[in-house]
């Protein structure tokens, strides 16, 4: 297991090893059975450090909400975008995810010289980009993007829960939990379910 000092050194090298602004990109919502996939792009301001940035999955919901506001307030610029359920069903989840990422980068007020993307696949972009496996735990800007994407999608799920309370979206966030699968068996699918995902496709067959 790498030491914290080594990870910090690696993070600094990744962030400032290229000329120009560096944007971090991450997504939330590839695995759920319902809803859009959300992506965020963030360019941090080195003059306004944000303590506690980490992969959104290891943070509590309360801490993500706190960091969400801090990121929005301190970052040089940030952008959140999505690909809809219809686009996911038409393109497949990978291509829809890359589309959401591209939209997030293109939505930045400032153009980065380098884009660092979490994972091992890159969206088509007009500037230099690098894919970094587990980047959300290595690069501060990617961590920030993961938090913006996760909080945005969780808020969307809470709103959907009001519209369709029988499914429990506020709790499982659209993932294929036992509760969600039982609700699908009982109530059928709603318009926000991804029709090409196996459990939904089987119900519609």
Q: Structural class of the secondary structure composition?
A: alpha/beta
Please count the beta strands (DSSP E, at least 2 residues each): 5
* Run of helices and strands: HEEHEHHEEHHHH
Poorly predicted runs are: 1-18
Strand order of the largest sheet: 3-2-1-4-5
Strand content: 15-25%
By CATH reckoning, the class would read Alpha Beta
Q: What's the helix count? A: 8
According to CATH, the fold-level topology is: Nucleotidyltransferase, domain 5
Q: From the alpha carbons, calculate the radius of gyration and give it in angstroms.
A: 18 Å
What would you say the CATH architecture is?
2-Layer Sandwich
> What level of helicity do the residues show?
40-55%
3D shape = globular
Describe this structure in words.
This protein has 205 residues and is α/β, with parallel strands linked by helices. The protein has one domain: Ribonuclease H-like superfamily/Ribonuclease H (Nucleotidyltransferase, domain 5), CATH 3.30.420. It has eight helices and five strands. It has helices at residues 4-16, 61-74, 85-91, 93-106, 140-163, 169-172, 178-187, 198-204; strands at residues 22-28, 37-43, 77-83, 114-118, 128-132. The chain has a five-stranded mixed beta sheet with strand order 3-2-1-4-5, with helices on both faces. Helix 2 (61-74) packs across helix 5 and helix 3 packs across helix 4. The chain starts with a helix and ends with a helix. The relative contact order is 0.20. The model is unreliable at 1-18 (pLDDT under 50).
């Amino acid at each position: 297991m790498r030491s914290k000092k080594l990870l910090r050194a690696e993070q600094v090298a990744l962030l400032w090893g290229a000329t120009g602004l560096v944007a971090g990109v991450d997504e939330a919502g590839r695995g759920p059975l319902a809803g859009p996939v959300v992506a965020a792009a963030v360019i941090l301001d080195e003059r306004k450090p944000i303590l506690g940035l980490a992969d959104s999955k290891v943070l509590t919901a309360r801490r993500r909400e706190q960091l969400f506001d801090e990121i929005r307030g301190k970052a040089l610029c940030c952008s959140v975008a999505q690909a809809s359920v219809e686009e996911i069903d038409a393109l497949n989840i990978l291509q829809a995810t890359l589309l959401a990422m591209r939209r997030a980068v293109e939505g930045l007020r400032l153009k980065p010289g380098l884009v660092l993307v979490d994972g091992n696949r890159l969206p088509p972009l007009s500037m230099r980009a690098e894919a970094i496996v587990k980047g959300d735990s290595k690069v501060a800007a990617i961590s920030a993007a993961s938090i913006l994407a996760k909080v945005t999608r969780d808020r969307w799920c809470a709103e959907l829960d009001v519209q369709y309370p029988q499914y429990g979206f506020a709790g499982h966030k659209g993932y294929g939990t036992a509760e969600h699968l039982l609700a699908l068996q009982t109530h059928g699918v709603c318009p926000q379910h991804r029709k090409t995902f196996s459990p939904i496709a089987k119900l519609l067959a």
